Amino acid sequence: MEDKQIIFGMSSESITFAPVGTVHCEFKYRFETARQGVFAKNRGYIELLPQRNYEQALEDLDGFERIWVIFAFHLNHDWKPKVTPPVVPGQRRFGVFATRAPYRPNPVGISCVELEKVEGLRVYIRNFDMLDQTPVLDIKPYIPEADSFPESRAGWRDEIRREEYSIQIEDTAREKMAVIHTLCGLDMENFCKVQLIREPTAKERKRVESYHGGLWTIGCRTWRIAFRVKDRTVEILDVFSNYSPEELRAGQPDPYHDKEFHRRFQEKYPV
User: Fold this and answer.
1) pLDDT band at residue 9, thresholds of 50, 70 and 90?
2) 6 pLDDT higher than 50
3) Residue scoring higher pLDDT (185 or 98)
4) Which fold is adopted by the domain 164-268?
5) For all residues of the chain together, what is the average pLDDT?
6) Looking at residue 31, what is its pLDDT?
7) Which residue, among 154, 61, 150, 74, has the nearest Cα to 113 in the 3D structure?
8) Contact assessment for residue 41 and residue 190, using Cβ atoms and an 8 Å cutoff
9) What does the pLDDT average to over 26-42?
10) 158-170, pLDDT tens digit by residue?
11) Architecture field, domain 21-153
12) I need a surface site. Which of 42, 70, 117, 146 has the fewest CB within 10 A?
């Protein structure tokens, strides 16, 4: 076999990267994160690896309001040449290079996030679309005059914007969501915007169930959210535990380590 010239871990056939750090945040499941970071409401930090002179590499970064984070889709192990993005109604498929789907030949993602502060080897960020334990490959500053082109055409995405639903949350449901967020950090308002803004009743793509009177529920971890659809509006009506009273009794298995949150929630909102 012909020898390949290797320069800094690269050859004519492959490139090898090592993570510079890891994301730490509350989002652990794919369905929780926003489709794009700009639609998220979350906080976390990137922990860079020690003993690599990254402290020097981070100097002067805190003067930027936004940064680009290049990362690996660590939960994906294969790729698809054509995909159906979650924002697309029906089963229409697009070439993966025309989407930001994670099922890519090289599972690399990019996210423009808000930078809060830099402390030592920690880069504190907010409003991002990465999961806990995501490997970070690189960090770059966002430069508005070079990185923003708001008038650019967006292909098929320009078409689907006309098919979005508006989200309305009843006061009681919003109050319960706030309590759950305080108990366990779960951002249900963001979840509703991510999951219900398009095709809110698509059973083949969402954890939804239908009931009499046009009522629907969608699962969010071990919680349920009740809603109904009127014209192009999704009305969020209520939030409740998906555990039965028997399942919440002391001594019952707790595989997700969250039953104490549900017990405290039901103390405030008895069934």
Assistant:
1) low
2) no
3) 98
4) YaeB-like fold (3.30.2310)
5) 88
6) 66
7) 61
8) yes
9) 66
10) 777 667 899 999 9
11) Beta Barrel (2.40)
12) 146
CB-facing half-sphere around the CA of 10: CA atoms within 13 A = 3
Spell out the SS3 assignment of the chain: CCCCCCECCECCCCECCCCCEEEEECCCCHHHCCCCHHHCCCEEEEEECCCCCHHHHCCCHHHCCEEEEEEECCCCCCCCCEECCCCCCCCCCEEHHHCCCCCCCCCEEEEEEEEEEEECCEEEEECCCCCCCCEEEEEEECCHHHHCCCCCCCCHHHHHHHHCCEEEECHHHHHHHHHHHHHHCCCHHHHHHHHHCCCCCCCCCCCEEECHHHEEEEEECCEEEEEEEECCEEEEEEEEECCCCCCCCCCCCCCCCCHHHHHHHHHHCCC
* pLDDT at site 27: 79
- Domain boundaries defined on the chain: 21-153, 164-268
